[in-house]
Fold this sequence. Notes:
The chain has helices at residues 36-49, 82-92, 111-128, 150-159, 188-191, and strands at residues 6-10, 17-21, 24-32, 55-62, 68-72, 97-104, 132-136, 138-145, 163-169, 173-180. The protein is an alpha+beta fold.
Amino acid sequence: MEIKDTFKTIAFPSPEILFKEKNSKFFGYAFHVTNEDEIKSHLEKLRKQHTGAGHFCYAFQLGAESTQFRANDDGEPSNSAGMPIYGQIQSFGLTNILVVVVRYFGGVKLGVGGLISAYRTGAQMALEESEIIEKTIDIHFRILFDYKNMNKVMRIIKEKNLSIVSQKMEENCEIEIATRKKMPNWYSTFSVICLKW
């Protein structure tokens, strides 16, 4: 079985989109996020931006391999807002993403079916306006070695096209490298020159 080591997310926050249904206004947004603190921060900013809005419905998915998600109806009837938004995240195959649809009530009730359709459309429009990118799932290694082996180590890093995340040059040398999850087991080439992994 082939190892999957890529995932799709968005590059930048989407532009604001507006969808109208029976006088209600639905503003849609999509954000790249990596943790729940970022999610809270985006929601707080939107609440300050839309002080007259009645509902801030959203869904998010985090994680590339084991994912966590949440869908929030924010006072709308159960499963009429958050889950339709989350359905669009799934439909686009995205993770590390937050989609928010802000509603201004226009005086006409939409019913549960109308709400599901409106929130789904708002989320879909925000995602269609987003730049979707594919990223790799990387694994990190820490290498500890003597100064005398610096050239050998750097040559292997260059040959194997590895990314240096950080390095410390003190009594011994320490380099943290990142590589795609499904890269071949090249690390045996380091074992003869390294003090430890």
